[in-house]
Amino acid sequence: MSAPMAAASVGLAELGFVEAAPAWRLRSEQFPSKVGGRPAWLGAAGLPGPARLACALCGRPLAFLLQLYAPLPGRADAFHRGLFLFCCRTPPCCAGLRVFRNQLPRRNDFYAYEPPSEDPPPETGESVCLQLESGAHLCRVCGCLGPKTCSRCHKAHYCSKEHQTLDWRLGHKQACPQAGEAPEEELDSMAKHESREDRIFQKFKTKISLEPEQILRYGRGLAPIWISGENIPQEKDIPDCPCGAKRIFEFQVMPHLLNYLKADSLGRSVDWGVLAIFTCAESCGLGTGYTEEFVWKQDLTDAP
Ligand SMILES: [Zn+2]
Ligand SMILES: [Zn+2]
Ligand SMILES: [Zn+2]
Ligand SMILES: [Zn+2]
Q: Tens of pLDDT along 266-292?
């Protein structure tokens, strides 16, 4: 389950809210902004693989948090532009964050030149495997590149052992076309340990889909709004883009979204106040694919 975001202009900044929408609205060809579920990738080339989507602190796979459709008017090479934010949800870490930028010209290999239809497409149903038109296989759990496969059927793809285990417990154990052959004892025992974490994440996503409150503030080149006077970055704390350009503020995730994580009793381990995302001022096209940008995390300080 995932939820799209609506935007409302407030001065120069735009505020993002969570609203309900049918699933087809959240597919890549609709250019959605959304929270939770799987990423609706923009370009299908150069997707970040498991190594780039691993937590820099604990090494476990990051979870998709949200994506923003943020084209740059007047920039032919960024007619379509998406930002994809991932966070670590593995206790006790829950601290790693990574953000990726992808952009495409209006005429490209993946999407029609004309804007997408307003009408729902004919229902195609859920397929066993997720596959991009380019032929790349995606992890059934998180929708990121899935180079690993189920060792029995070789049809189900995964980004990592963690997600293979999760899917095993959530039903692939029964649904696997080769079910009943060699038992996967290792997966069985790993799966027992992951149920609580998964329940919490489901609860988080359900809540997100119900709560229409501000979760995001967008304002490329504006100043972020900080939640505390401490741990505000200086200019030197924001690394330049590898292309040589400065990075500028683009959007921030408001504490309201992060409150869900806390309320879900991942507890003391999740203590973000504000996440501020800084992107290349030139929105450069270094190579093709997904360019990593920079996240600044301002923690909540314990108020007296
Ligand atoms: Zn981590
Ligand atoms: Zn995965
Ligand atoms: Zn299988
Ligand atoms: Zn750059």
A: 444 455 678 999 999 999 987 679 999
Please give all residues whose CB falls under 5 A of ion ligand 3, grouped by chain where several chains appear.
150, 152-153, 156, 176
Centre of ligand 4 to C-alpha 62, Å, is: 24
Residues 120-141 have pLDDT tens digits of: 766 554 444 566 666 778 888 8
Distance, CA 258 to ligand 1 centroid (Å)?
A: 16
Domain ranges in the chain are 3-113+209-299
197 contacts 91 by C-beta, under 8 angstroms? yes
CA of 212 to the centre of ligand 1 (A): 28
The model carries a pTM of: 0.80
Strands 13-18 and 247-253, by their bridges, are unpaired
**Cα–ligand 4 centroid distance for 150 (angstroms):** 38
